[in-house]
Structures are given as C-alpha cells and as structure tokens.
Amino acid sequence: MRRFFLYLSRHAGLRRWMETHPSARRLTQRFVAGTTLEEVLAVCATLQSEGTFAALDHLGENVTSLSEATGSLADYLAALDAIAARRLPATVSIKVTQFGLDLSEAACLDNVRRLAARARETGSQVEIDMESSLYTDRTLGIATQVAGEFGGIRCVIQAYLRRSQADIERLNRLGVEVRLCKGAYDEGAGVAFPEKADVDRNYTVLMRQLLDHGTYPAIATHDGALIDETIRHARENGIGVDRFEFQMLYGIRRDLQRKVVAAGYRLRVYVPYGTAWYPYFMRRLAERPANVFFLVRNLLR
Ligand SMILES: Cc1cc2nc3c(=O)[nH]c(=O)nc-3n(C[C@H](O)[C@H](O)[C@H](O)COP(=O)(O)OP(=O)(O)OC[C@H]3O[C@@H](n4cnc5c(N)ncnc54)[C@H](O)[C@@H]3O)c2cc1C
C-alpha cells in the first residue's frame, strides 16, 4: 500500500487533475496550512502563541525550468522578509529540486546561497529537506558548501538510509545542524533498510550520535517511543532542553505536539503551504493509508 501511494505521487496526470480539483482545499486542509503566504503566517502566529516554532515549506519540487526555480527563490525570499517583519520564530524549509537541481547544479547552488544570505540578514535559517537517494550526495554537497559560506543551514538526514551514520559523522565534524527523520521515499533494499524495525533501531543510534556530538539537532518524528527515548538519553547525559528541538508535521499528532511543549521541550512544526501540494500530500497518505478513509469521510460530510 505504501509503495502504491508513493508510485501515485509521481503520476503527473493525476497530479494536474487533483491540484486543480474544486474540492482540493477540503481534501488537503488537514496537512496543508493554506495556499498563500498570508494564510501560513497566520498559522505561524498561532503556533507562536502556543510556544511553538515553525518551519515554512512553500510546496514544490522537481521544477522543470530555471525560471520556475528563480520563482521558488523569490517566494522564499518573500517568506523570510515576512517572518522578519512579524518577528515570528520561524525558519524556511526548501527542496533542492525546487531550486533547480535537476537542471543545473550551479544555478541551484547560487539560488540556495542567495536564500542563505537573506536568512543571515534577517536572523532566520534555511532547512534543506532530503528527497530520494538520487539526490543525497548533491544535497549534502550544497548544504555543506552553503553552511561553510553563510552558516544557518540545517540539513535533513533519513534514518532509513544505510549510509546515514557516516553522513552524520561528517556533518557533526563540520558543525552543520541536522534534522533527523525516518525517510519518506520509495527506496530499494540496497540503499535503505526495508524493515520498519531496523529503521527505528537506526533512528535511535543516529539520535544518540546527534545528541552526543552534533550541533543543535532536530529530532523530527511523531513516534512516541523515539521521543521518550530522546528525552531519556538527554536527561541521562545532562543534555539541556536548549541543545536540541523536536520537529513534527502540521496536522499530525497534535496531542503529542502539545504534550512535548507542555513538558518543557522545544518544538518546531513544519508547515507546508501553496498549490503544488500533490506529492507532499501523497507521501502523507503513504505513511498512513488509513488517512484515506478519514479524508473520504470528510469529503462526504
Ligand atoms: C518535521 C519533519 C520534516 C520531515 N522532512 C523530511 C524530509 O526532508 N525528507 C523525508 O524523506 N522525510 C521527511 N519527513 C517525513 C519522515 O521521513 C517520515 O516519513 C514521517 O515523519 C513519518 O515517520 P514518523 O517518524 O512520524 O514515524 P512513524 O512510525 O511512521 O509514525 C509514528 C506515528 O505518527 C503518526 N503518523 C506518522 N505519519 C502520519 C501520517 N502521515 N498521518 C497521520 N499520522 C501519522 C502515527 O500515529 C504513527 O503511529 C519529515 C518529518 C517531519 C516530522
């Protein structure tokens, strides 16, 4: 079932049809905060009032022209300016294929540099999502390069990849911040652990590696057992609550989000917005196919 949704997530025709469907907003509202910057800023302000940080994701990936990539940069520059103007505790989270990586690595690097420069000026930060393993090396290359030049970069590492321990070792050595997640793409057994139990086990190993030796890591998961284990490890090793943060996705496990904040831990919610929602939305369905039944029920209401 997971593979089926991930296969559908790459279907261009279905994507066009769904993203322009009149019921799109009703369908996506649980996972996508809105279509405009104004809407997502209102969500961030609410999160701020609840003591929660945000990471803004202007949805989009695998752009097909460099002008589209420049458009993505412009959208994110506007987001950084608005975050600064409203003094919101928020970062931006980008995908390198949204910044033109499929078309020109040099142009993509230049776009990420320009965003990182603005983030430094405005006192924010750029988080770089990790896409499929086709992009891992190039994403890490861009992240470490721009982190070296501007600072303020946080790069995602996926616990399902067999290579991740070595990648974290390198990022820790370079002082680059990491967001640790399980991984959301369709990967073969050669590069990724096929069994969920192995992914969870590796997540624990990587979480400890980051807490012990990393720079302000973000532990991104809705898995209560892994959150408890992170808290236990931090307490036992005298790692203060200001030395790491938890991250969760907008619309997922609100109960757990509130619990983590109430317990005194830092939480950042990843908040997607925009009209290019289809691949993101399908990955959320792939993680939990039962979501389909809830969505259909809501649509029929
Ligand atoms: C802040 C953040 C950023 C991320 N960035 C990336 C990235 O850059 N690259 C990448 O590959 N992946 C990314 N992910 C997605 C991640 O890889 C996982 O696919 C996703 O978080 C589900 O894994 P989990 O850790 O929550 O654990 P799971 O074991 O999958 O889930 C634990 C529990 O969380 C709840 N849950 C999880 N997913 C859903 C869902 N879709 N709908 C409803 N409930 C759900 C369920 O209650 C489930 O039992 C990100 C995740 C987060 C939280």
Order of helices and strands: HHHHEHEHEHEHEHEHEHEHH
| Ligands (ions, cofactors included) | flavin-adenine dinucleotide
Total beta strand runs: 8
- How much helix is in the residues? 40-55%
Mean model confidence by pLDDT: 95
Largest sheet: 8 strands, parallel, barrel
Query: Strand percentage, roughly?
Result: 5-15%
Give the overall shape: globular
Strand order of the largest sheet: 1-2-3-4-5-6-7-8
The assigned CATH architecture is: Alpha-Beta Barrel
In whole angstroms, how far apart are the ends?
25 Å
Structural class: alpha/beta
Number of domains: 1
| Name of the top-level CATH class | Alpha Beta
The number of helical segments is 13
CATH topology: TIM Barrel
Radius of gyration: 18 Å
Uncertain runs with pLDDT below 50, 5 residues or more? Answer: none
Task: Explain this structure.
The chain is of the alpha/beta class and 301 residues long. It has one domain (32-276): Alpha-Beta Barrel (TIM Barrel), CATH 3.20.20. The protein is built from 13 helices and eight strands. The protein has helices at 2-8, 12-19, 24-28, 37-49, 66-85, 105-122, 136-150, 164-174, 196-213, 224-236, 254-262, 278-287, 291-300, and strands at 53-58, 90-94, 126-128, 153-158, 177-181, 218-220, 245-249, 267-273. It has an eight-stranded parallel beta barrel with strand order 1-2-3-4-5-6-7-8, surrounded by seven helices. Helix 8 links the parallel strand 4 and strand 5 (177-181). The longest helix has 20 residues, at 66-85. The mean pLDDT is 95. Bound molecules: flavin-adenine dinucleotide.
